[in-house]
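Hi V.,

You were right to ask for the full record rather than a summary. Here it is.
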Amino acid sequence: MSQNYSGNATVEQVKREVRQTIEELRELTRSEIPFNQFCETLLARIVPLTGAYGAIVWQFQGEPGFAPIFGHGPRYQVMAAENQQHQGLLYEVGRNQNGLSVRSEAVSDAPEAANMLLIAVPIMDRQNRFWGVLELLQRAEINQETQTGYMKFTSQLASLFARWQEQHDLRAASISDEQWANRVTFVREIHRTIDLNECTYAIANETRRLLKADRVVVAVEQGGKYRVKAVSSQDRFDNRGNVVKKLTRVINSSIKTDTPLWLTGNTDQLPPKLAGQVNEYLDESHSRTLAVLPLIVEPPKPRDELTRRSRGRPRKIGGLVVEYFDQEVAEADVEGSLSLVKSESTVALENALATNSVFLLPLWRSLGKLRDFLWTNYRKRTMAALVALGLLTAAMILWPMDMKIKVDGVLQPELRKNLFAKMEMVVKTVHHDHNAKVQAGDLLLTLESEPLDQKLIELTGQIETLNQQIESLRRQLNQVDRFTEGPPNQTALQLAAQLDQLDIERRGVLELKRNVEKQREALQVFSPISGTVMTWDAKRKLEGLPVQFGQPLLSIADLNGRWQVELLIPQARAGYIRDALARAGGKEIPADFLLATDPNTRHKGRLVRISDRAETNAKGLTEFRAIIEIDSEKLSAPQAGAGVVARVNCGPQPMGFVLFYQVLDFLRTRVFF
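Predicted structure:
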């Protein structure tokens, strides 16, 4: 459009570029771009596209006339606002609301304005009211057809201003509605509760959301000082933390000295003490905007015109701290929402403080909720529940019930023997393995003891040596007696004394040998009873095993005889079983039990005795042992050592005691004692 084209292809290409430009600028009107940026972008696109000298946006300002607010191009400044003839051209466009094209010589005598064609079209707002003029400074030598094309193109561009304003107004209306919705939500949320903790957290979080701040802190006056009570987006915080302590000093200094604080720059305007505290805090938080807003309760107004005296002084009940980390926000930017925040937060916090000061408030609140729940909302149900509770209490006290104490135990044959090592030795041979049938006197184990063998050899050698010495002394004594007549001489007496001494030593060694031989007899272990070997995998476990004194070796039990249940009674329940035995005359009390190997069959038995002394088990718990006699014929394939769960019948007791005796025992021993 701005050049002389040699062919239709080039003209079509320019037209496509023009249509594309208009479409892109139309899309630009839908974005959130500011008006000045929109104008600059539009002019910067059309000047190189059309090859014009420049383009200007004129705004009609009433009595002063038109003022150029944006311009672009190498020669757009030649059309000065002081040129009255040019102002007349613009007025003519505004009156007729139609585009005009005139040569520049008609409105300006300036040499730099010569040889230009001025194309001016009106700019209308979204209510179709005249707003200004879009002027294109084009070359004068273009033909009439091209002028018409430029006029149409410029008119299309001017219509984009109305589209931008329409989109801008729609966004502004949407933002306004959103702000009002946010304010209504803010008021509703902070007044939802009168609990002090919940109220302060609601104020902190809702203020942060409404003001779009990064952090909001709520401080409450307590004993003349202000203490941080809530931090937005933080359920917990440490009042002893370094940041909170420094912020608390800033809050106290700012509110107490009545120094308004909305800081977006340096602290030169603040008092020295407060400035130092603020700088210390900012070194920790790195906030670019810091505001401390006192929450002040104003005294009530006089009721009538005659009462002029105020009923009190303003009272500071707390403060808000608003922080923006990455931006500097002026107080005027959030003034509308800020006034609402301060007024409504003051009312909500005052109500919460008044409620929180009630003595024993949590108790009264809980009692009130309980009264409403039981008596107001569910009176009939409450009466029915009270009647049922009374009947249940009477049944608990008056209705008898068998007290059956559950105890763990094991099933064992009544006749059984455990064999233990009588000294330090090694198991050489196990003659009967697990589950083998043996008779009384059968050889079960052959043991060996190398120390005993060595001791026996040593004693035998000593005896032989002593025998040789004794025989030698006897021969010497006989020779002395043969050649000496009369009473024994000194030599004979010495030999006789030595002979007596050796004889005594020999008798001692012989006694030791007999003891060793007796100990060697213990190396043969015989079965004390007829029965079955109960030790599992005895051959593999015992053969070649060194054993110590008292170590268990084998267990023999008569599986064909009578069986019994051994109970392991905790000491807390042994007293009840003893009392039941005493009431039964010390004979027996009934019991039933289940075998872990056959839990579907319940067996009967009789508890006949309980041990007098307690034992400590492997877990360190104190237990008493008791015996339950059973009918062995009714047991099918009993297994020694099988687990048992027994219930010992201790006689009738009140139902409440039977059900809750363990709780009563705990209270007696741990609470009331």
